[in-house]
Amino acid sequence: MADGKALQDAFVDELRDSYDGEKQLIKALPKLAKAATSPELRETFESHLEETRGQVTRLEEVFGLLGEKARGKHCEGIAGIVEEGKAIMEEDFDDATMDACLVAGGQRAEHYEIAAYGTLVAWAQALGHDEAAELLQQTLEEEKAADEKLSAIAEGGLNQEAASAGRGDAEEDSGEPSSRKGMERNAVARPAPVKRSASQGSQKRTRTRRTN
Ligand code: FE
Ligand code: FE
Ligand code: ZN
Description:
- By secondary structure, this protein is mainly alpha-helical.
- It has 6 helices and no strands.
- Helix 1 runs antiparallel to helix 4 (95-126).
């Protein structure tokens, strides 16, 4: 009756795109972790790597529920984001600036995935694949949490540290401006002394530290 392929076919195509994208990220995340200087940032990439492995398994479950073979279809979007990440890692940034750029690159991937899984959940619901929708929703929540964690790291001292390194005025650190001796304490413990009007990456403002 209908001409051409239907939403069900587009849904399976998008699942294949995400399946391939997650597999690309399993290769890329260890490189981001290795390039990170902040222990907190490294741990964030490493724990999201573990989550990403679970997301691949979850997609395989979804393919199974649909009676489809689990296979990927090259995701150009993640491929482009991964390429940009590689270019960042080849730059000669000071450590804090490199970390800030790794966050920026990581958040591009998370936002792409948030868009993809948001669509997949909505299409699964529209098509009546309730169990698949629930599984995809779990992944969507993980991608959002990863994005928010990256924002919290950036805004919790890292960006300020990078800005200070650029000015050569890193306080409480007598070493060279790009030294990260103070950074590791700052990244985990010191609240950002920054006022801002928007939160990095995520649109939500749940992590702001305003006292007024
Ligand atoms: Fe993912
Ligand atoms: Fe894609
Ligand atoms: Zn992710």
